[in-house]
Predict the structure of Lrp/AsnC family transcriptional regulator.
Amino acid sequence: MDKIDRKILTLLQKDATMPVAEIGRKVGLSTTPCWRRIQKMEEDGVIQRRVAVLDPGKVNVGVTVFVSVKTNEHNDAWMRKFAGVVDEFPEVVEFYRMSGDVDYLMRVVVPDIGAYDTFYKRLIGKINLTDVSSAFAMGQIKYTTALPLDFAIISDDDK
């Protein structure tokens, strides 16, 4: 990866629908070399996919709940089972295994508290959890899907 690749990625993270010709102009490349770089980053898995970012309120999932889970089960089979259960719930948009006091953390989006209660009852009906704690977000202060690229390793040729 070089500085031009980072510029391309910055542009794509802001707007993945930007035409390749426009990206090329902004980074100082013609269309074909720019397209080749994008294809290479897709092949290498740097660009995993291109998606549309939706407004949660406009699709009726304006309530965000952070769900902390503790368990007494700490083995691979149980973790795989739990991951499979969580995968069945489209309301869970992020899911992490954690260090510290909490074993797992989920970000859940729902229309309202009633919908969260329904989600919670379905979840605990499918798997035994030691402790589940929910925190409702009162407001979103910062949200981005763009990753910081300052830490991306730049090839020696481009330093």
